[in-house]
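Entry 14: structure prediction run for Competence protein ComD. Input pasted below.
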Amino acid sequence: MLHPLFVFFIGVLFSLSVAANDPFDKTQRGTTASNASLKDITIVTPCHKGTEAIFPSIAFNQISIVGVLQHQKDWQLLLLADNQVNLAQQGDFVAAESLKIEHIGKQEIRFLRWDNPQNCELSTTLNIKF
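Run finished. Output tokens:
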């Protein structure tokens, strides 16, 4: 007799907590949307949407270039930071500043840097020669 009452009591508690946090309840949607609209949030969209950078939490000046590899016609860049080695290709983004690798060659590497992320047309070229 006690066991069925216990199961019933737990079921009632569970259903109440689920009903209170119903994500499909249309009345709750309006309250969260109005709270979000009261806040002024400025989101700066970067020039490179949806791309993940290599070593995204490390500054560019802390990353060492170990070498350049050529595999048939493709060039790759060997990068070292925090005792981790990573391969990067042309078009990849590197470091916390999100520098884009524009060109990898035998004698130089060219990176693109955006000083103002709101204006994607203004970029600075960074050349590293060796």
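Notes: The chain is about 25% helix and 30% strand. Will compare against the previous run tomorrow.
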